[in-house]
């Protein structure tokens, strides 16, 4: 029941995180659009003021009774190089237009149809400005948005579109990477299962053949029992993947001694084991079955690195209520840029490896036992040290 509750919590947490991230993205988008719209409105208001001043200058220049220096007003009219505008008489005749064409074509060649179309377009964008010429004559200035204002209005949508596209590409890339990693884990797990089951099954098949030939060695029952016990251990190990294992306060020296002895008898005469355990009892909360799996994987990894010939040193010591276990070999070592990658599922430097042993070791030590496992140092063919740190007490 506990297992199911934890899985549901993990699923719900993942779903909640996705929803929160999506809401944050929506809020950021809304906030960005809000700020950009405020900026657009401010610039539009400034352009309206500029066109009002431009219209006033046109009025003064059109008034035959105007006195004083008209050069200033002429400068105001000429300074408008971005806001498109059309000056229309009371009869609807176009008197003047500015900033309508980006090409080199002269302004007097713009067709009347196009000018009328622009006037209708400007009516929708802004209210026209009246220029009273006399008591009976009122000219109108129709004006639109400047190029800068138009670009600014579309800019946030372009940016959000690019960001959305980037997020979409990133999502698909991440999904593909996740699926690929999951596939590697499943393949590796299947191969690891076959590898773990292979030895005891092969042994049992041999004993069955002996029984069929009526050849029953004296130690047959004991050895068959060992193989059956080994199958039970393997079954228990794989059954604990994905569930919360039960941790027990056990004496660590004895657990390490048993596990190392088991591997030593199956490692060949060319691998020398040097075991330096503590001379006093030290206890740690572990799951013995899973912890032995980690020890076996690290020993196998070291033997492979030494190509079946070399020295394996095991050192255990305590420091600040921590138990430190070092696995030291004189194999080919690990490149510095691979020291973190070797714990990733699917990563392997072996020709026949499947990159799951160290990944499982890391999950067992760090996720289940709340400890640490890492490569402390590596000097090829001299010294490579894998270190495990666990909570302990003496």
Cα Rg: 40 Å
The CATH class assignment of the largest domain is Alpha Beta
Could you say which overall geometry the principal axes of the C-alpha atoms support? rod-shaped
Q: Helical region count? A: 8
Structural class: alpha+beta
What's the topology here?
Layout: H1 2-62, H2 71-79, E1 85-88, E2 94-98, H3 112-125, E3 129-132, E4 138-143, H4 147-212, H5 220-239, E5 248-251, H6 252-264, E6 271-276, E7 283-286, H7 288-305, E8 310-319, E9 322-329, H8 357-368, E10 372-379, E11 383-391
Parallel strand pairs: 6-8
Antiparallel strand pairs: 1-2, 1-4, 3-4, 5-7, 8-9, 9-11, 10-11
Helix pairs in contact: 1-2, 1-4, 4-5, 6-7, 7-8
Architecture overview:
With 394 residues, the protein is of the alpha+beta class. The chain folds into 2 domains: 2-145; 246-391, Heat Shock Protein 90 (2-Layer Sandwich). 54% of the residues lie in helices and 17% in strands. The strands form 3 sheets. It has a 5-stranded mixed sheet. It has a 4-stranded antiparallel sheet with strand order 2-1-4-3. A two-stranded antiparallel ribbon has the order 5-7. The model is unreliable at 1-10 and 103-107 (pLDDT under 50).
């Amino acid at each position: 029941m506990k297992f199911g509750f934890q899985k549901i919590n993990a699923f719900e947490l993942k779903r909640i995180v996705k929803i929160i991230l999506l809401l944050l993205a929506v809020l950021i988008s809304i906030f960005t659009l809000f700020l950009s719209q405020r900026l657009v409105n401010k610039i539009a208001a400034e352009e309206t003021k500029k066109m009002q001043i431009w219209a006033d200058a046109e009025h003064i220049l059109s008034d035959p009774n105007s006195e004083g220096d008209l050069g200033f007003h002429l400068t105001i009219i000429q300074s408008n190089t971005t806001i498109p505008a059309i000056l229309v008489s009371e009869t609807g005749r176009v008197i003047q237009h500015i900033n309508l064409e980006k090409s080199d074509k002269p302004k007097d060649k713009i067709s009347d149809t196009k000018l009328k179309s622009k006037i209708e377009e400007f009516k929708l964008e802004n209210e026209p400005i009246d220029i009273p010429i006399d008591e009976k004559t009122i000219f109108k200035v129709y004006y639109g948005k400047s190029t800068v204002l138009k670009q600014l209005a579309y800019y946030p949508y372009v940016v959000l579109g690019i960001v959305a596209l980037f997020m979409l590409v990133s999502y698909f890339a991440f999904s593909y990477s996740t699926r690929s990693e999951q596939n590697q884990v499943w393949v590796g797990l299947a191969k690891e299962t076959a590898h773990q089951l292979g030895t005891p099954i092969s042994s049992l098949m041999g004993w069955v053949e002996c029984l069929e030939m009526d050849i029953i060695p004296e130690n047959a029952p004991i050895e068959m029992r060992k193989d059956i016990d080994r199958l039970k251990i393997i079954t228990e190990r794989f059954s604990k993947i994905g569930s919360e294992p039960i941790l027990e306060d056990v004496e660590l020296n004895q657990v390490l001694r048993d596990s190392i002895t088991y591997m030593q008898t199956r490692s060949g005469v060319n691998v020398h084991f040097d075991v330096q355990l503590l001379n006093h009892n030290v206890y740690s909360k572990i799951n013995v079955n899973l912890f032995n799996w980690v020890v076996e994987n690290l020993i196998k990894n070291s033997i492979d690195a030494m190509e079946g010939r070399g020295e394996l040193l095991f050192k255990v010591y305590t420091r600040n209520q921590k138990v430190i276990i070092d696995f030291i070999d004189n194999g080919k070592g690990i490149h510095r840029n691979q020291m973190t990658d070797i714990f990733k599922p699917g990563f392997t430097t072996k020709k026949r490896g499947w990159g799951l042993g160290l990944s499982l070791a890391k999950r067992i030590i760090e996720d289940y036992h709340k400890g640490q496992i890492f490569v402390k140092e590596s000097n090829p063919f001299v010294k490579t040290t894998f270190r495990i740190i666990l909570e302990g007490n003496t």
